[in-house]
């Protein structure tokens, strides 16, 4: 019985002892379930935060000027630090490349640029193949004679090269094959053509901070142009563009009495990086053309027709007047080719000095011959019988006689020019008020072209009468 009591007591103690164990296990299970639920809630919250999108997209932020690369730099640095061990183990040498962020506009531009490149390459390829075709009927004969027709690789390349060179020559050659119109008929034609450069020969331009650009006219320019215009067809060939030199040329000869034509840099031939004044483009006989220039590159095609001179620096000199005797001699001797005469001088840059030495020798010889003729009684008797008197005072050196005649013609010519200027000034004064108003156009009070021509002729007649009256009055005052 005692044993029975002991067993029952042990059993009861075991039962009572097992109850708190059950309670502990249930509390642990509840705690774990609670932690698991919190974990699920946190994961759901993170997933929702990841799925949520901001209203401001990356494209909008990029257009607004936000540096997204700098914004994501922190995230990338965190990712790099968390996975430092993995990146170091995988590739410790090469750093991580950042992907260039582009907006939708940049993507479109890149797409269009690619299409443009493809289109340009296709167009150039098609144009190149088109330039290798056989010759057309309207193409120049020079090109046709240089390369034959045919579709071999060599002939196609030669035709392509010839057409390409002709395209570039279009921009290198002058705008017209003949820069000057045909010369006038012989009674009005000058024996020679004189091409003069403008810059650093007739004028000199300088720039300073106080006055800007200033242009000086060389001493003797008006006399040089006026005197030689009776012997030469003068052509001003400027080394500068027309927009810069046209006004200067107009001031030198406002009524175009001395200079026949004006040419500019646009009329040069461009070759090997230089602009060349090609005299063969003037539509004149090269044997009767001279050019005076201070730059050898300007006449490198025809150096035998050139008279080189030193550039004028703006200081007063008489170099233009020194050139007149030789140019006058050349024009009055009726030479058929000027090149042999020019080449006869040892140094063409000092032609005036050498020419004066030759003239002095000829003049000395001429007067010695005249003295010998006077001492010869037979020649003296023949001259008396023919009614001529030979004396040192009456006989002049031929070049001096030509110079005196040229001076007389120059004086008469300048007098006519002054009269023409006065007539043009009077004409401008009289015709300046002859205008038609808008009221005349509306009411139809404008005369017909025939009536306008008749009125203009009558007005011109009145102007000439007024000019003759003024001329007489001025002569009476003198």
Description:
With 478 residues, this protein is α/β, with parallel strands linked by helices. Among the domains are: 113-172, no CATH class; 186-344, Rossmann fold, CATH 3.40.50. Helix content is 57%, strand content 9%. The chain has 17 helices and nine strands. It has helices at residues 2-51, 58-63, 68-71, 73-82, 84-90, 104-130, 141-146, 153-172, 221-228, 242-252, 319-332, 339-343, 351-375, 377-385, 398-431, 438-443, 449-477, and strands at residues 192-196, 203-208, 212-217, 232-237, 259-263, 269-271, 274-276, 289-293, 306-308. The strands form three sheets. The protein has a five-stranded parallel beta sheet with strand order 5-4-1-8-9, covered by helices on one side. Strands 2-3 form a two-stranded antiparallel ribbon. A two-stranded antiparallel sheet has the order 6-7. Helix 9 (221-228) runs parallel beside helix 11 (319-332), helix 11 (319-332) crosses helix 13 (351-375) and helix 15 (398-431) crosses helix 17. The longest helix has 50 residues, at 2-51. It is elongated. The termini are far apart. It comes from Tetrapisispora phaffii (strain ATCC 24235 / CBS 4417 / NBRC 1672 / NRRL Y-8282 / UCD 70-5) (Yeast). Essential component of the TIM23 complex, a complex that mediates the translocation of transit peptide-containing proteins across the mitochondrial inner membrane. Pfam families: NIF. Keywords: Membrane, Mitochondrion, Mitochondrion inner membrane, Protein transport, Transit peptide, Translocation, Transmembrane, Transmembrane helix, Transport. Residues 187-330 form the FCP1 homology domain.
């Amino acid at each position: 019985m005692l044993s029975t009591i002991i067993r029952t007591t042990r059993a009861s103690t075991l039962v009572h002892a097992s109850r708190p164990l059950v309670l502990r296990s249930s509390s642990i299970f509840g705690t774990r379930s609670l932690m698991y639920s919190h974990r699920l809630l946190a994961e759901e919250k993170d997933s929702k935060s990841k799925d949520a999108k901001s209203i401001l997209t990356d494209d909008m932020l990029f257009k607004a000027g936000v540096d997204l690369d700098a914004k994501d730099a922190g995230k990338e640095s965190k990712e790099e630090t968390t996975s430092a061990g993995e990146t170091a183990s995988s590739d410790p040498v090469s750093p991580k490349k950042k992907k260039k962020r582009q907006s939708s506009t940049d993507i479109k531009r890149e797409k269009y640029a690619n299409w443009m490149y493809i289109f340009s390459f296709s167009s150039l390829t098609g144009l190149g193949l088109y330039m290798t075709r056989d010759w057309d009927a309207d193409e120049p004969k020079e090109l046709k004679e240089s390369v034959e027709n045919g579709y071999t690789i060599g002939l196609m390349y030669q035709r392509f090269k010839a057409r390409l060179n002709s395209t570039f020559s279009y921009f290198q050659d002058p705008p017209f094959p003949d820069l000057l119109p045909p010369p006038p008929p012989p009674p009005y034609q000058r024996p020679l053509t004189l091409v003069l450069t403008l810059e650093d020969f007739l004028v000199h331009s300088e720039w300073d901070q106080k006055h800007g650009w200033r242009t000086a006219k060389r001493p003797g320019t008006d006399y040089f142009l006026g005197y030689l215009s009776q012997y030469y067809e003068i052509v001003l060939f400027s080394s500068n563009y027309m927009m810069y030199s046209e006004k200067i040329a107009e001031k030198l000869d406002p009524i175009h009495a001395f200079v026949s034509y004006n040419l500019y840099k646009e009329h040069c031939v461009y070759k090997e990086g230089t602009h060349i004044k090609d005299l063969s483009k003037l539509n004149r006989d090269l044997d009767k053309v001279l050019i005076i220039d201070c730059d050898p590159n300007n006449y490198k095609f025809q150096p035998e027709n050139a008279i080189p001179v030193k550039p004028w620096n703006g200081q007063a000199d008489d170099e233009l007047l020194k050139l007149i005797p030789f140019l006058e001699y050349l024009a009055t001797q009726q030479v058929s080719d000027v090149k042999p005469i020019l080449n006869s001088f040892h140094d063409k840059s000092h032609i005036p000095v050498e020419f004066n030495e030759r003239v002095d020798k000829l003049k000395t010889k001429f007067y010695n011959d005249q003295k010998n003729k006077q001492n010869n009684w037979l020649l003296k008797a023949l001259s008396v019988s023919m009614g001529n008197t030979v004396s040192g005072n009456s006989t002049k050196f031929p070049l001096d006689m030509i110079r005196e005649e040229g001076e007389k013609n120059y004086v008469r010519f300048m007098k006519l020019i002054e009269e023409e200027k006065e007539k043009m000034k009077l004409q401008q004064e009289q015709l300046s008020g002859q205008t038609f108003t808008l009221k005349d156009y509306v009411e139809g009070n404008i005369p017909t072209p025939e009536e306008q021509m008749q009125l203009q002729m009558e007005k011109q007649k009145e102007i000439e009468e007024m000019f003759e009256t003024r001329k007489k009055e001025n002569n009476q005052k003198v």
